[in-house]
Amino acid sequence: MSDEVKGVTRRAALGRGAGVAAIGAASALATAVSGPPAAAAGPATRGNPSASRTDALPRTVAGVRIPSSELARRTAQFVRSVSSGTLFNHVMRTYLFGSLLYDRRGDPYDSELAFVAAALHDLGLVEAYRTPAERFEVDGADAAQRFLREQHMPAERVAVVWDAIALHTNAGIATRKRPEIAMVSVGSGADFSGNELRRIPSDALEEILAAFPREGFKQDALDNILSLCRTKPMSVLMHPFAEVGRRHIPGFPVPTVEDLLLAAPFEE
User: Fold this and answer.
1) DSSP of 57-82
2) By C-alpha distance, which of 239, 39, 236 is closest to 127?
3) What pLDDT digit, counting tens, does each position of 68-107 carry?
């Protein structure tokens, strides 16, 4: 991050005109220093430890069938080629955890649609798909949409995947949507924070972790969060990640909800 961005304090941002005007100024600054949007095409895989791996996915893990349709295979190959091994394993665990939890509830779902959404849900953390200012969930949803359109997936199914990815960090909304959307939120939450993990049998958990090891996922996730906070801080405005930025980054420029409320341009 440049010295200019580091110098933008919360007070300075709000002082440029109350409320929304301040947010716009800081957002524009974040955009200016983040560089142009990444190309829609897939990134080069140099230095990516998972890029050269061509091993097929197992047919089942912990009793959960992994879809083997042409679209599912192409999706898995694509995600493996652009992601680190740690991130790839996380999205696979997301599908497995989400499937196990929804199987236990007895809720029917489209396994191919759920798999594709889970596999693609963190593309917004891949540098090649980051835009200068959007939330990472939206970056990921847009990248997934481009990929699936290239695969000629029907538009109504692409729309479900977009929603699943864009909403996956907001469980309160995602879990009120159709199962394929909710599963991505529930499955990623189980892997990220252990939420609802107690509902998964210990032998199933061991099998999932053996098939797709965590490989330092906690530190990798923290590094990704801090990278977003440093390179495009206003993308985490009113986002849980902002609390990580405030804890670790001196002078973190993103206003709190209280700051926004008190700076609203109304006489009271």
Assistant:
1) PPSEETTEEPP-SHHHHHHHHHHHHH
2) 39
3) 999 999 999 999 999 999 999 999 999 999 999 999 999 8
